[in-house]
Specification:
about 220 residues, Uracil-DNA Glycosylase, subunit E, alpha/beta, binds uracil, six-stranded mixed sheet
Length: about 220
């Protein structure tokens, strides 16, 4: 499958010369929890680091932790995580063999009564948190990164991209790491119409099957 280079990515080089380069996932977890690179740490319960095997071949990148993830300190354990788990299973990708993380490590929200409503991270927050994503990439060195939605794709590619124009295609970042862009699973949760939801879910699984084929050489 042809690989289209998309990146002006800053590779796995540290973005900030003065910050230490972290070498293990446990040290990274500690470092992320001490992060003050943007103001999001102030209201979040904790940072939510990526999770999975140190040498996972596939890295899945979401947007930012949600309410459940913020409380648990683990990525994709809430409603969007359940959709992701089902889609990965349907695509033949064991989640346990993937490294799951987010473009932004702290939950950004707006209080509404007792609820905390998700707020999209802005360009500054995405750019500041890109440092941590690069540290994760440097440690895990995945063969393939799957960007789940526009925020992840923006962080990885370094510019705003249109998901519908790039999705499902084997792309590559400047470092040679493969990149596959698809939708964010929470997009499915927002769909009201059953038929639309079913079709969008099938397309999501199709994209993930391409990822499976690229990395595990499993038939789609
Ligand atoms: N949405 C994300 O992008 N990441 C999570 O961890 C949970 C929901």
């Amino acid at each position: 499958m042809a690989k289209r280079a998309v990146a002006s990515d800053s590779a796995v080089a540290p973005v900030d010369d003065k910050a230490p380069v972290v070498r293990s996932l446990s040290a990274l977890r500690t470092a992320e929890n001490g992060c003050r690179r943007c103001p999001l740490y102030r209201n979040a319960t904790q940072a939510v680091p990526g999770e999975g095997p140190r040498r996972a071949k596939v890295m899945l990148v979401g947007e930012q932790p949600g309410d459940k993830e913020d409380l648990a300190g683990k990525p994709f354990v809430g409603p969007a995580g359940r959709v992701l788990d089902q889609a990965l299973a349907d695509a033949g990708i064991p989640r346990s063999e993937t490294f799951v993380t987010n473009a932004v490590k702290h939950f950004k929200f707006e209080p509404r009564g007792k609820r905390r409503l998700h707020k999209k991270p802005n360009a500054y927050e995405i750019e500041r948190c890109h440092w941590w994503l690069e540290q994760e990439r440097a440690i895990v060195q995945p063969e393939l990164i799957v960007a789940l939605g526009a925020t992840a794709a923006r962080s990885l590619i370094g510019r705003v991209v249109t998901i519908t124009k790039l999705r499902g295609e084997a792309l590559s970042l400047e470092t040679g790491t493969r990149l596959l862009v698809t939708i964010h699973p929470s997009a499915l949760l927002r769909m009201q119409e059953e038929a639309e939801k079913r079709a969008a879910y099938a397309a999501f699984v199709r994209d993930l099957k391409i990822a499976a084929k690229l990395v595990f050489k499993r038939a789609a």
